[in-house]
Amino acid sequence: xxxxxxxxxxxxxxxxxxxxxxxxxxxxxxxxxxxxxxxxxxxxxxxxxxxxxxxxxxxxxxxxxxxxxxxxxxxxxxxxxxxxxxxxxxxxxxxxxxxxxxxxxxxxxxxxxxxxxxxxxxxxxxxxxxxxxxxxxxxxxxxxxxxxxxxxxxxxxxxxxxxxxxxxxxxxxxxxxxxxxxxxxxxxxxxxxxxxxxxxxxxxxxxxxxxxxxxxxxxxxxxxxxxxxxxxxxxxxxxxxxxxxxxxxxxxxxxxxxxxxxxxxxxxxxxxxxxxxxxxxxxxxxxxxxxxxxxxxxxxxxxxxxxxxxxxxxxxxx
Length: 318
Known about the structure:
The chain is an alpha/beta fold. It contains 10 helices and 12 strands. Strands 6-7-8-3-9-10-12-11 form an 8-stranded mixed beta sheet, sandwiched between helices. The two termini are about 30 Å apart.
């Protein structure tokens, strides 16, 4: 298979003003690399503040990157400017987390879905109304709902509008940023099944950001686990859930609630708090909380090395 998205050494940092006019840098994403194969789903998981959403926004150029390359279909997306960038943006669309705040309350639903076509000029003007009607049908909304405003829809219906808007430019890559976390569990299942169906029918590629490992297990082909701006484990779905190698990944999986009485998982608690992101440690960033820590862990940052076919871990104990 060919990689649609090839991210190499991506870094995103934000300036933080301190007293006496000094500036410190917060590395939200620090030297991250991954690939997403065409037609597949890569999930990026981690706790709040791990950098997973910032990494996705960096890929989409919705935040400024401070280093690295983003290869999209063979071209460097970060190097594009002007008209070339405007055309390339049609290939990358985002489904945002909150269906309540990501839709313009002053626009009718049909105008919201049509907006990317008007902005990027991906379709002749005369063909756009028919395309909007087709998108409404694809995501399970009725034609008469096109004239309604966002406040007249439920949360799940609003997210369907967000999905239709993301599909409007016929993108190759869709970034799902916590796309179901604001929805009820039953509605989550409907939206996830819709995303899976659209992926099969349209050949879509997803970069799926989530903190919910149950959702990730249902949606993903490969999973990258992030901690403090670094990828600490990257594997295919079955390998990661059946044989996690990094202590942080094991702790995340042990915290997933289950109704299966036969599921025997050793509960692994993570003590303490993450280190200061403005002054990260020299060695492994998980060392201060890791139950398996050794002196060597604090000396140098372990590289993300292969421990099996399609399984990489940044841990000297792996």
